[in-house]
Amino acid sequence: MRAVAGRARDTIQAYLGLTKTRIIEQLLVVTVPAMCLAARGIPSVWLIVATLVGGAMAAASAHALNCVVDADIDKVMKRTSRRPLAKGEVPPANALVFGLALGVLSAVWLGLTTNWLAAGLSVAAIAFYVLVYTLLLKRRTSQNIVWGGAAGCMPVVIGWAAVTGTVGWPALVMFGVIFFWTPPHFWALAMRYRDDYAAAGVPMLPVVATPVQVSKRIVAYSWVMALWTLLLLPVTSWIYAAVAVLGGAYFVFKAHRLHAAVAGGQEVSPMKLFHLSNMYLCGLFLAIAVDAAVGLPVLGWPS
User: Fold this and answer.
1) What is the CATH number of the domain that holds 213?
2) Tens digit of pLDDT for each residue in 62-99?
3) Is residue 190 classed as helix, strand or coil in its secondary structure?
4) How many domains does the chain contain in total?
5) How far apart are CA 45 and CA 105, in angstroms?
């Protein structure tokens, strides 16, 4: 019995490994604040839960299908060599069925519990991540994460749609925040694992460009991201404004510090910026949620 239970546990863990649960957590962190901003308060608990469950299944579907396509390079890269398909813990055909089934379930669930616009957007996000990023861009261009990262921006749009049944301009601004955040975030990680990507033949920017060129682009995207966050000021209060301005300034400062160190030939630790980017995004969207929940007067458009 213990042996059977142990095998069942290992199988469950292997399938969970296909879904990349840590990334899902981050995607869901931005969904709830988007829903709060759309509702100008706290939406019903049921709607939040339904949206998070559907969003989690959609993200899990995309990640499982990504693992199927990338199984060959995952075996080569040290960072991904412990993934279930790379280790042979799940048959590829089973992983494919698992990913497709999750995608169908997520769309049906969101359609029935929220609305069909949110469901359609979830299907579009899965398709974009798998077909555009994983199959088309990832192995062909150093701009892979720039355009492919759009799939990771979709949770805020799905959350907004789940509340309103529409896609308002604040949802598109939040989409843009994550879109411009993704390159500095991921390029910092790719700088650390440059040799991994080079061995796998994946042309991430740090593989095909010099460290100085990479750090320059990190600085450029950090500036655009920080400035873009200010577009939400008309629908938020001083709470969000303070976090956006101070947090954005600090992030840009750290990006410049990284670039200066790289340009000066110093030993750098790009993972510090990577970890900071995670905290920054969580803090920014937490500010959006608190701002909406507190209900302070919004700053509005300048007269």
Assistant:
1) 1.10.600
2) 999 999 999 999 888 888 888 888 888 889 999 999 99
3) helix
4) 1
5) 21
